[in-house]
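pasting input
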Amino acid sequence: MSNEELLDVLYDAVVRGDRDTAVTQVKSGLESGVAPMTMLFDSMIPALEEVGSLFETGEIFLPEMLVAGRAMQAGMDLVRPHLADETAAHAGTFVMGTIAGDIHDIGKNLCNVMLEGNGFKVIDLGINVPPEEFVAAISEHKPDAVGLSAFLTTTMPELKTTIDALIEAGVRDGTKILVGGAPVTQEHADEIGADGYAPNAAVLVRTVKELIAA
Ligand code: B12
């Protein structure tokens, strides 16, 4: 199978939520030297975008979206060790979480993989994280930066609620706050008083490094 065919089969497997085929494709991709980033950015992520469109137009429903997410996650778990760079210098500590009410974590996990690959120690608080958990994690770990992930327009107000809670608790000033996720924009980030925004994991790494160095 050519690399192009492999990426196509992987794409279809994620769209159909066929976890076994996704895993097989990623494994054989890794064996035959296909770059992990290529599998992620040229196949698995576009596949999930397609899933989002199919859901939006009512061609698939929640269960299908769920199995697609699981197939993606299984593939991502396999590429993760290949992206981590053990030799990278320690770049800083990053606390990351998906905000309250929201359980989307694939985009957040991808950010974590990229941050770790670039020398960050990541403390992942998981999904549906209430503001007080962010406050506690910042007090405990004194991170250089904090990331808030949101994927629903209905949970976006939680970004501001969380930032306000950090200010209220007196932990906001010692750290940089970044926000992101599908519906989040630079404009929204500015409005709610975040230090930074990034549309994807690669830009996040660049942005957080710039913010820490500033
Ligand atoms: C998979 C998926 C699910 C899975 C989630 C599985 C999981 N473990 O994450 C399941 C099935 C559970 C799910 C549930 C729901 N979902 Co959903 N889901 C999706 C889907 C198809 C893909 C999301 C995804 O993972 N994308 C892949 C990643 C890689 O996305 P990405 O945006 O490129 O990620 C990058 C950036 O966002 C950024 N980033 C991410 N986090 C952060 C954080 C920081 C700090 C920074 C700087 C950057 C950053 O970097 C990432 C990596 O490059 C989207 C469609 C879409 N287009 O987004 C819908 C979508 C987000 N879901 C949607 C909906 C409506 C729901 C439900 C409400 C459905 C329902 N009726 O119950 C529930 C909500 C449950 C809840 N309370 O959260 C809607 C949201 C609409 C809206 N405007 O609010 C979408 C857009 C689908 C649609 N087109 O209608 N969903």
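fyi The chain has a mean pLDDT of 94.
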